[in-house]
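Students often ask why inverse folding is considered easier than folding. One informal answer: many sequences map to the same fold, so there is more than one right answer. In these notes we will look at a single instance of the problem. The structure comes first.
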């Protein structure tokens, strides 16, 4: 009788572990998808950042000479 209860408990806990493993595997898949999505977004933002830095540097090159000329007229 005790052996039968232990056997049944073992089977139930085994199924519980299997179900938990399946749930964890599904969670891993969801997190992998989320990670891929976040990496894609990060790459897009990095590219946009680089483009904005380039535009900023171009504007500085255009504006700086005019700024120097304007400042020299005040002296």
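Output (designed amino acids):
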């Amino acid at each position: 009788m005790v052996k039968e209860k232990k056997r049944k408990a073992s089977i139930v806990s085994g199924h519980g572990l299997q179900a938990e493993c399946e749930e964890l595997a599904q969670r891993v898949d969801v997190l992998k998808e989320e990670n891929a999505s976040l990496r894609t977004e990060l790459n897009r933002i990095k590219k946009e950042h680089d483009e904005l830095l380039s535009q900023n540097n171009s504007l500085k090159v255009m504006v700086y000479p005019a700024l120097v000329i304007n400042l020299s007229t005040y002296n």
